[in-house]
Amino acid sequence: MSVITASGLTKAYGNNVVLNDISFSLPEGKIIGLFGPNGCGKTTLMKILSGLIHDYSGEVLVNGNKPGEKTKAITAYLPEQTFVHDWMRNIDAVDYFNDFYSDFDKNKALEMLKRFGLSEKQKSKTMSKGMQEKLLLSLVMSREASLYILDEPMGGVDPATRGAILDFIMQNYSQKSTLLISTHLINDLESVFNHALFIGKGSVLINDSVENITAGGKSIEDVFKEVFSNVW
Description:
The chain is α/β, with parallel strands linked by helices. Helix content is 34%, strand content 27%. It is globular. Helix 4 runs antiparallel to helix 5.
């Protein structure tokens, strides 16, 4: 069963077409890597799927519904940029999520703050990028969502911390859920993916299981370098 389908999806910013009449479907209950160079439309696609961008052409469905109020209720989105206000303390952010999302587990979020060594009373503006990413992950992964969309979830943390964050992601999502993760850190995450979507030049270049993509003995990173050295 497909959790996401797109047909003839096109999105442009002025004369810059970032998604050019693309069509694809993504399977339910998988951990899916979204790969492509900077500027290829990954974040735009994620925002469309999350219901944050509406001015596109073509059709997009999440669990059979057009992105909007119904799909936002089952989709947990982690953007690349922080969405927590500078004045907020960590506990304020937790309370905000608890009030806003019916599927949010406050106790789980507070436990995650402790696990990451984050004080409940620390304000967002005093935190490093890595600390903010830990906070955002704690918030997003404390929802019982059907679809998690994570945009560069470990881009601002040091290599020593990535393993702990990856373990956290893997331990804190339902096995029935789907994870769509955009990342340039392919080596760090490659072992968890079982499906991959490659986009570039506004087009879908590869959409297949990791098993099929790596059947010839190449890693996902090898395939990435091969595909985009010729296309981008």
